[in-house]
Design a protein that fits this description.
Number of helices: 12
Number of strands: 12
CATH architecture of the largest domain: 3-Layer(aba) Sandwich
Mean pLDDT: 93
Strand content: 15-25%
CATH superfamily of the largest domain: Glycogen Phosphorylase B
Strand order of the largest sheet: 3-2-1-4-5-6
Number of domains: 2
Order of helices and strands: EHEHEHEHEEHHEHEHEHEHEEHH
Length: 340
C-alpha cells in the first residue's frame, strides 16, 4: 500500500499531521507514506519515522501554479494506491488527480468533486480539533467514531544535537528556558515583547539560561526582548535552520510559546510547554503532549481568529500578566521536576 499525503503549508500543521501518519501505520504496518510538502517544512519529515520520503512542492504558499501542479502530478503517475489531501483548497487536490491516483481522499473543502473521489463531509461538532480532522481521513468512509489520537513524537539524533550545540557555542549546564515569541499568522497571536523580557529576567535570576527561537521574520520582536531584558537572552532567531531548531529545542528545560508552529514542535519533542493563546482558541489546536499548560483569557471577544486585533486593544494578550505565565512555568516545572 503506497500513500501520497498532500501535506499542509504551516509548520505546526505538519507536526500534527504526524498523528495521521501514525494512524495509517497502525491500520497497515507495511504502508509506505510519502508526503508532498513545501520546502520549509520538509526537514520535519526527517524526524518522523513513519514517512518514507518527502516530495518538495515547487510552489510557494498561495501560488496557483496550475502548470507546475499538473506536471508534478504526471511525474507521479503509477506510484500510489491512495492520496490523502489535508489542505482544503481545491488546488491542493490537483496533483493527486493529475497523477491518476485511484483513491483520492479528503474533506469536501472548496468544491472538489471530481478532483477527489473519496470525499468526506466534515462535521465540525464531532471533530472540533484539527488533528482529529487529519486522523479521521485514515478511517474508511462512513466511519463516524471520533478517532483516537496518537500525539506527534519527533525523533532527534544525538549527533544532530551535539552538532547544533557546537555550531552555536551553547551548553545546557543550567536549566534552559526557550521563548518562542513569534507567530507567522499575525500580531494577534503574539504576547508582548516586554512581557517576554520580564519573564526572561525572572528565569535568569534563578541561574538559568534563556534562548530565543524564531525565523527571520521574528528577529525584530526578539531584538525588542533583548532590549527590554538587558540582553538577558541568547538570540537564535533567524540563525537556525529547521533541523537545528528541532535539535536545540529538544534539549531545553521549558518552553513558553505563542500559539505557533514552534509550540507544536516543542510539544512533539515532549518538552514542557506553556502555550499562550490570544486570537485563537486552544480548543482547535492545543499542544498534544501531556506536559503542558495553556493560558487563555477567554474574553468576550475571543477567539476572533483575526491576524490583527479588530478593536485595536489586543486585550486577550495585553491582559495576560507575567505573573500568570511565571506561575504556570513554576507549576509545570514542579510537576515534571524540570528545574534542578
Amino acid at each position: 500500500m503506497l500513500i501520497l499525503v498532500v501535506g499542509p503549508a504551516w509548520v505546526g500543521d505538519m507536526v500534527m499531521a504526524q498523528s495521521l501518519f501514525q494512524a495509517l501505520r497502525q491500520c497497515e504496518p507495511r504502508v509506505q507514506i510519502d508526503v508532498l510538502a513545501p520546502a520549509w517544512s520538509l526537514p520535519l519529515l526527517m524526524h518522523m519515522p513513519q514517512v518514507r520520503a518527502g516530495i518538495c512542492s515547487p510552489l510557494v504558499h498561495g501560488q496557483l501554479g496550475l502548470r507546475q501542479r499538473w506536471a508534478l502530478g504526471r511525474s507521479l503517475r503509477g506510484q500510489y494506491n491512495q492520496a490523502i489531501v489535508l489542505p482544503n483548497a481545491w488546488k491542493s487536490a490537483i496533483v493527486p488527480w493529475a497523477a491518476r491516483i485511484p483513491q483520492r481522499t479528503g474533506w469536501l473543502g472548496e468544491g472538489r468533486w471530481g478532483l477527489l473521489n473519496d470525499v468526506r463531509r466534515l462535521d465540525v461538532q464531532r471533530l472540533p480539533q484539527m488533528v482529529q480532522r487529519f486522523v479521521a481521513l485514515a478511517q474508511p468512509a462512513g466511519v463516524t467514531a471520533v478517532p483516537v489520537i496518537s500525539p506527534p513524537q519527533l525523533q532527534v539524533a544525538e549527533a544532530a544535537v551535539r552538532s547544533a550545540l557546537q555550531q552555536y557555542r551553547l551548553a545546557v549546564s543550567a536549566p534552559v528556558l526557550a521563548l518562542c515569541p513569534g507567530a507567522a499568522y499575525g500580531p494577534a497571536k503574539r504576547w508582548p515583547a516586554a512581557s517576554y523580557a520580564a519573564l526572561a529576567q525572572r528565569w535568569q535570576r534563578q541561574q538559568g539560561d534563556v534562548w530565543l527561537f524564531g525565523s527571520e521574520q521574528d528577529q525584530a520582536v526578539c531584538a525588542e526582548i533583548q532590549q527590554y531584558s538587558g540582553s538577558a537572552c541568547t538570540d537564535l532567531s533567524g540563525r537556525l535552520n529547521l533541523t537545528e531548531t528541532v535539535a536545540l529545542l529538544s534539549v531545553t528545560t521549558m518552553v513558553v510559546s505563542n500559539d505557533s508552529g514552534l509550540m507544536h514542535v516543542a510539544a512533539a519533542l515532549n518538552r514542557p510547554v506553556v502555550a499562550l493563546y490570544g486570537a485563537t482558541s486552544p480548543a482547535f489546536a492545543p499542544p498534544l503532549n501531556q506536559c503542558h499548560k495553556i493560558i487563555y483569557l477567554n474574553l468576550a471577544c475571543s477567539p476572533c481568529r483575526k491576524r490583527e486585533c479588530p478593536f485595536g486593544h489586543l486585550a486577550c494578550l495585553q491582559q495576560m500578566t507575567v505573573a500568570q505565565v511565571w506561575n504556570a512555568v513554576q507549576e509545570l516545572a514542579a510537576e515534571h521536576n524540570e528545574i534542578r
